[in-house]
Automatic annotation (TrEMBL):
Family named by the database record: Belongs to the pyrimidine 5'-nucleotidase family.
Transmembrane segments: none
PANTHER family: 5'-NUCLEOTIDASE, 7-METHYLGUANOSINE PHOSPHATE-SPECIFIC 5'-NUCLEOTIDASE
Protein's recorded name: 5'-nucleotidase
CDD domains the UniProt entry points to: HAD_5NT
Enzymatic class: hydrolase
Quaternary data: Monomer.
Keyword terms: Cytoplasm, Hydrolase, Magnesium, Metal-binding, Nucleotide metabolism, Nucleotide-binding
Species of the source: Collichthys lucidus
Localization (cell): Cytoplasm
Gene Ontology BP annotations: nucleotide metabolic process
Amino acid sequence: MQIYHIPWINTPVRTVLAIWHQLTKTELPVSGAGQWQLPQTPASAVAGQWQLPQTPLGQWQLPQTLASASTELAKCSVLMRERSRVEETIHAMQRAGAGNLQVISDFDMTLTRFAHNGKRVPTTHNILDNRLLINEDCTKKIRALLNTYYPIEIDPSRSAEEKLPLMVEWWTKVHELLIEQRIRKDMLAQAVKESSAMLRDGYKVFFDHLAEQQIPLLIFSAGVGDVLEEVIQQNHVFHPNVHIISNYMDFDQTGVLRAFKGQLIHTFNKREGALSHAAGLTELQGRPNVLLLGDSLGDLTMADGVSEHENILTIGFLNDQVEERKESYINSFDIVLVKDETMDVPNAVLRHITSSGNGK
Ligand SMILES: Nc1ccn([C@@H]2O[C@H](COP(=O)(O)O)[C@@H](O)[C@H]2O)c(=O)n1
């Protein structure tokens, strides 16, 4: 007898089969009690074992997108508080289709890698640490500020309320230092080229797939918008479906940095930006399902501007201080990816959500 095996740890076979039948839209007979009954093949079904349809080669068939999502979610770097809620949400989003979906993502250390070959990958702020743009003294000051405030940003023993004024202090001091340097707009592209900025493995599939499916991607970043745009431009993924909310530089007529535009965005005030900016974006209207990606608990408020949302699935990258922060991440995000430098899980989830359903 062949043994039916799905690498979705602890998932009852019946659940997977029920989802599979929903996906293939075949009618399943319903028992008197309203329970799904799965078709049995009398000759080979032993003690209530259910069979999946076989290919001519005798391989068990499972919809490829579901198999791939389940394989990704079964990795030991994937943590979930409530697996059944994740499955139900993904399934509901898949039924609603690509036309009802929007993706909201943080940028630094979410779409970009946290580290590569044991070295930290620079954030958009840190990409500016280049002699083309700032002098040595400024570099020293910005690094000292990073060493002071970054540990506070990720400290699990402090509340967001406690961190908030300190984050404003950090961002404000750094922006003032950058303005003093009279950074030139025409040097930004070269600084990005010379940097070791890196998007996560699988980024191209992620961006291209969303563009093909005409799913809006809102990148909501407390980094530097001009640098962020240059990073995605140089990686050839700045597609028309991409919208960005971030801290943008304000250059004077000669192309010299003189200020930062609009209200400051830092890690713990994204809710305000979501309500004032994201909520007004027409491209996001009428899309009640949200896939949200972030690396900070502050990122969870990025979808607060979505009115009449139906399903929100949150994926959190836990890059740093893993043991100290694991519990709070599991309690806050639906899916937590521990030290995962790839887009494999978001890509598998997206592939499945967009595998069929009602396009708009
Ligand atoms: N001077 C600074 C200020 C912040 N950062 C880091 O950038 C991240 C913000 O960008 P998101 O795209 O993640 O919103 C934040 O997590 C800070 O750690 C920095 O490197 N330098």
